[in-house]
DNA sequence: GTCTATAATGAGATAGAC
DNA sequence: GTCTATCTCATTATAGAC
């Protein structure tokens, strides 16, 4: 690790770190943490295995670095949810942003899903420090909208869960969707229309979620 | 492999196979395919490693067996969707059944999610032979309901995706939900209420999914 | 049928030359 | 900074005794 007196990473160093991280994202998202090997990452990056270990302390270091960087990007769409905007519009726009992001960054989505699925062993601290506060804050915003009568009664926490689940589904379960939809070019437009209709219906509901029975 | 002249597995053999499969489900669903080791499975099953390999040809054999058995159970709730029933009721009951199943069989949900997430390398044939035909059949049923005016216009394929995504989310992303909801006893009742409200709103929508802008 | 011991492979990490 | 060669350990699978 090059960090003796002056800790200024050269342009080559910065570039190599990026190349390695991009290769690692490709491999980790496809095979999971344990399924990925340094050989695969090295091959994908076009570097030798020891060279990889010159830039990172080990396999886990690479993985944690990826997850940490990802977290910020991943939360951007939710950060942008504006408490002063029109409630219905804000939430539907958030759904759009989230779906777009899953479509553009499917590897990141799968990397995250892999980690959570296995109990978040390496990203748990970030969940508490970054995700939880933001989640609570935005849930309070939505709850405020409901109390102000700007939205029908609904459960902010589970609404956000549903948004996450449905938007990330297209990245995380892509293999299944490809089998079921056939070689259809791109499911995204129809997915976007469906999700707008679904969440739009929920948010437009007059009032009092009538029991179904 | 005991299959020379008479292929009748003894009661002990049947029992041991079940014990091994249950242990394997526990381990595979927690660590993924590559993350799981025969040592862990053997320890969980209370058997020796060579004994495991007496009953199964290898690690992959165990995994494939699990996935194949799971597929049938997993599709039961959808099979039960009745073309002759009340459309809205049928779909909402399906959501309930799916959520209940994910709550009762979270390990199975995660095993399946792990496999799909990594591109369904081992279960792809079953997706084509079992899931696809059923999916097409039930989509046609729902499409028929829409054409008959019994349901508002909606996209059957993406409706099913949304149902799968939201119900399985609670099992697959349990680690995240636990962080965000705190040590709350059981999210299931509120999740069920939310999903009934959401899908109920979509299905009750008068007609013509109005563009949101 | 089940075990102990061990072979064979694969993968993370390091030594040391260049 | 980067490479070749190597070490070490974990893991799948087998051999052979009981």
Automatic annotation (TrEMBL), chains A, B:
A GO MF label: DNA-binding transcription factor activity
Annotated Pfam families: TetR_C_3, TetR_N
Keywords associated with the record: DNA-binding
Superkingdom assignment: Bacteria
Keyword set includes Cell cycle: no
Keyword match DNA-binding: yes
Domain HTH tetR-type: 14-74
SUPFAM superfamilies, sorted: Homeodomain-like, Tetracyclin repressor-like, C-terminal domain
GO biological process: negative regulation of DNA-templated transcription
Portion annotated as DNA-binding: 37-56
PANTHER family named among the record's database cross-references: HTH-TYPE TRANSCRIPTIONAL REGULATOR RUTR (PTHR30055:SF196)
Protein name: Transcriptional regulator, TetR family
Organism lineage: Bacteria, Pseudomonadati, Pseudomonadota, Alphaproteobacteria, Rhodobacterales
